[in-house]
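In the current project phase, the collection of sequences with tokenised folds has grown. A representative record is quoted in full directly below:
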Amino acid sequence: MNKYKKLITNTAVLALGTLGSKILVFLLMPLYTRLLSSSEYSTADIISQTANLLIPLISLGMYEAVFRFAMDKNEKSERVLTTGLYTTLAGGAVFALFLPLLCKIEYFNGYFPLVFLYVVCASIHYLVSRYTRAIGQNTLFAVQGMLSTALNIGFNIIFLVGFDMGVTGYVLSVIVADMLTSLFLFFKLGLWKRLHPSNFSKAVLGAMLKYSVPLIPTTVFWWVTNVSDRYIIRAVIGDSVNGLYAAAFKIPTILLLLSSVFTEAWQFSAVVEKDGSNKKEHAEFFGVVFNSFQGMLFMSAAGLIAFSKVFAVVLFAQSYFEAWRYMPLLIMATVYSSLVTFMGSVYLVDKKSIHSFATALIGAVVNVVLNVILIGPYGANGAAFATFICYLVVYIIRAVTARKMIPFDQHPLKVCVNTLILGVQTVFLILELPFAYAVQAISVILIFVLNARPILGGVMKILKRRKG
């Protein structure tokens, strides 16, 4: 199977296994917005986001290192898994020592034990699931994603509807789902046979830390970029608006789901195919894939922006309807977040984690500065605009540096035109200008015409190739 068909196949497997289940979680928004007030939803979101900040710190980013090193032909996967898991468990033990002190932080209203459980269970789940991907078990990886989502949905219904546990039930459903899914992978892969103290290696740990440590602040910086606005909104405007903003983020999640399914398969192909192609073929591979990827992102974004109000009516309780005003800019930000991730795959191929660190730092600084400047006068949409500009800046930097490593065609003119069309579409919708709906329709058509033919041509080219 050539590398193009392999990429399509892996993407299809992951899509079948994970996309449907992820959409089911998305469709639970009516449940969340009816059973949780905007203030409660804000609290639950803050707990989840705080845990996401702590995960790379407590685990030392071992889940990222396990994914990258377990794919190396020169490394024994059992040694990588054992070293990574032991290090993650040690980090959890250290975290537990500080738990009594952390529980005194009033900001979390006594919820910090939930943060601790969330961090530990998620860290282990991330590690074993990424190990599953690294050893080529894509179907099993998709199955575990489906299982995790099904468990999350089931426990949400039990804890929120059955026991009326509110914020605690919302967070606890994620914790239990992560724990049970990790156990499923542990027994399905027979990991107890691979985990042995003799497989722990200080040399491997050193190499993995050299790779993962720069990714820790990188992940923190991305967290700052994605979440700092919610803390500032909560402090400046209040929990109610922050709850609307957090709910608005769920619509761009559709786009993020689509891109993440592809990214899961793409990162694997980008690394594996490096050694099987010469530089020219590898650059062509990146160029063809990027052209189709960016086109699909912009087409999907145009459709989501056009139907922002419809999503708010269908998926949110009436009290959350005003959240639609934040969706267009957040959708634009998500497009560039996905493009940034694609460019980051170049760093992944060459293990250039320091480049990820530097660009993420720049993005975080830009985001925080703009949040401080814009949230006061422009409210939550100031935060959304700050997020968009941040990702745009990082994309430009990564595009320039990535091209020096792999000189592939990035189609800059097409990306600029697509962005301009989305920008016009967003301005007309948010400001509710005359002919706003006509502009939405025209924008969707223009982006479709600009991108559909190249995508179809790229797909046909991919399917006709016999060698890769």
